[in-house]
Amino acid sequence: MIAARNTLERAFLIAIKESFIALLPFIVVNSLLALVLAIVDVWQPSWQQSDRYLWLSQFGQILFNFFPLMALLSLSFHFSKYLELSAVAVASVSIGSLIALHIDSHQQMAMTQGFSFLFGDARAIILPILVAYLLRFFMGIKAINFLKSTQLSSYLKLHLNLLFPLITCFIAVTMVMYASSFLLGQLFESFKLALESSGLFSQLIVRVISTHVLWCFGVHGDIAYMLVFGIDNGLQQIAPNLTLSQFTDLFVLLGGSGATHSLLIAIFIASKDRNMLNVAKLSLPFVLFNINEILIYGLPIIFNLRLILPFIIVPVVNTLVGYLLVSAGWITFSGNEFPWIMPILLNGFVAGGSMAIPLLQLLLIAVGVAIYLPFVRHYSLQGKGDNFDKDLIKRIQLQIDIDKIAERNYTLRQSEDLQTNVALEKTIKEVLNGELLLYYQPKVSLVSRCVVSYEALLRLKNRSGEVVGPYFIPDFDQAGYGNLIDSFVINRLAKDMRQWAAEAFHPRVSLNLNPNSVVDKATQDLLVECLADYAQSIDIELLESAFISDLQSVEQSMVNLRAYGFSFVIDDFGTGYSSISLLSKIKIDGIKLDRSILENIKHEKGRILYRHTCMLCKSLGFHLVAEGVETIEEEIFVRSAGIDTVQGWLYAKALPRQDAKHFAILQDKLSERQLAGTKKGAEAP
Q1: How far apart are CA 684 and CA 679, in angstroms?
Q2: Distance of CA 648 to CAs 122, 273, 445, 651, Å?
Q3: Cα–Cα distances in Å, from 184 out to 122, 178, 511?
Q4: Transmembrane: present as a keyword of the record (predicted)?
Q5: Which helix (H) or strand (E) holds 19?
Q6: Would you say 259 and 368 are in contact if contact means Cβ atoms under 8 Å apart?
Q7: Exposed / middle / buried, residue 441 (Cβ in 10 Å: 0-12, 13-18, 19+)
């Protein structure tokens, strides 16, 4: 329980961090636009009427309004990744709930107005997190996961089973957000009335704390404060020649919200975290002009309990110290105006006309650094010493490492997977455009030269009419479509067996099954349904790997099918990592020796191995078939090793149904002639 809770907590922090890191390019562009526009406003106000300025200003405003939507999408993706959910589902429910919150049944809303409200709603940042955890909870309720069929792909089944959890989650999230928005609205209204009647110092403290708390939830503090409380007291005089907004620019927001000059210095002094240092370096040019969104979202400070506390404490301390000194009259102001983007120290000199304010700013920065340092050290040590995050990231992201080499390897693997998918798609199209056929390769007795059985082999007749081998089977198996191939083989074999029976031809036939299909109940049922009437004439060939992977399940499946008369043979024995000890554990009727060990009889060790393998298998009571006999020399050798049933191109390739029957009839006639000739020779004087 503790481990699961710890995993969820770490997944939350990593998802938050990666969500806003993914938005850094967007945030940097926004910050750059804000800086350019602010510089123009201060030093070239005449440009404000130009078309370029108006275009850039509107573009920047629209881009800024898009941030909540971008955050919603990024949070949906990353929380879905770490909570193993569908990102599309999380984003859909989040956007749906956001739309529901803005619908007013008493007033018609224009489409563009609705989108404007949606894009600017700060709740868009909270919604995907709430949706992700609630959806995960509802998906864990088995009663509303109505699809349990193994015939559907896991991907399709996952998304069909999302229907009821998704609807339930949407209703729950929308109701929770409605209720919380209403309660918070009532609370803020009461708080607003009390705040309006309070003193200036109380308003100042509340404003500083409120804006920074809002920042901690990913909301632009100053804008949200004025939207929520409807109070813009920035022009109130806090001292002679000093407004409240000027006070916060000079003494509270040193580098932006959270007094991030102090945070930056603390990071450069104490942090060993590479990500933290990189974000600090990237944000440095902007923080000099009091623009710190890159730092807030890049570290991130949002939802980060390790940095939220000093982020609020430092501005409050700055407010208390600054207000105490200003109200005591120890600092005087010249009344000179300065823009909010003017770097600190310089703005202090302009506002005071002396070095008194810059010295106080340096003191406040030093105090802020002292407050931030222990938190930064703790954050850095946690990031450096805690391998839990890395293990979690590797597990969730399919062992993606965070260093560059692993990232390249991951990209390579992704590229290979993409190529595999493209190849699979091409293969499927080739199969669909062609015609699947079932051919039969004879197994011949070395004693009588008659056909004793056939192996059913899959073939594809392509669009050009050429019949080719089943090159597509590995791709289908890898993609999980092996059961489809087996279903075709079983149904076609049943059809051919019925036609042969109608022609008074009753051959013995073996068919190959995918190892996964052997233990599949649906495949077993299909075998019984289609081939039970011919079970006494059917050998099921299984790869040795099927027994190694799940011996108990395979044996149980064999017991079930033996009851109907099916027999079982190990196919391709001698390939890969064959296990001789397995032969003493399983109950099979025969063994097919793979051509790969026959190819080695050119060497003495290969001949010894083949003979001893035959001797061992025959002593255990298994019927042997030599597979892949292609030359007279190979036939002579396998005969000497005690094998009397062979299969290979020396006798016949895989043939269509009718040709296979004619081949058997021809072999029987040749055998009869040979036998008759032998008798005549024996009767001659």
Answers
A1: 9
A2: 73, 65, 12, 6
A3: 14, 10, 70
A4: yes
A5: helix 2-22
A6: yes
A7: buried
DSSP-based three-state secondary structure for 645 = strand
Q: Is the peptide bond before 685 cis (omega within 30 degrees of 0)?
A: no
Kindly give, in sequence order, each residue whose CB lies less than 8 Å from that of residue 222, ignoring residues fewer than 6 positions away: 211, 257
Spatial separation of the C-alpha atoms in residues 115 and 376, rounded to whole Å: 39
Place of tokens 């580098």: 255
Q: 603, 604, 590: which is closest to 647 by C-alpha? A: 590
**Looking up tokens 């015609």, which residue turns up?**
435
Distance (Å, whole) CA 162 – CA 165: 5
Nearest partner of 486 among 448, 509, 458, judged by Cα: 458
Could you read off the pLDDT of 13-56 as tens digits, one per residue? 777 777 777 777 777 777 777 777 777 776 777 777 777 878 88
Which residues lie closer than 8 Å to 27 by C-beta, 6 or more apart? Answer: 20, 67, 293, 294, 297, 298
Residue type, 603: H
Residue 591, H or E segment: strand 590-593
All domains of the chain in start order, with CATH: 443-683 (3.20.20.450)
Contact 485, 514 (CB under 8 A): yes
Token representation of residue 492: 């076609």
DSSP symbol at 565? T
Question: Position of tokens 């000059």?
Answer: 261
pLDDT in tens, 422-473: 666 666 777 767 788 899 999 999 988 899 999 999 998 888 888 888 887 7
d(CA 572, CA 553): 21
Q: Could you give the 3-state DSSP secondary structure of residue 543?
A: strand
3-state secondary structure of 313: helix
Residue appearing with tokens 């509107």 = 58
At 145, the amino acid letter reads N
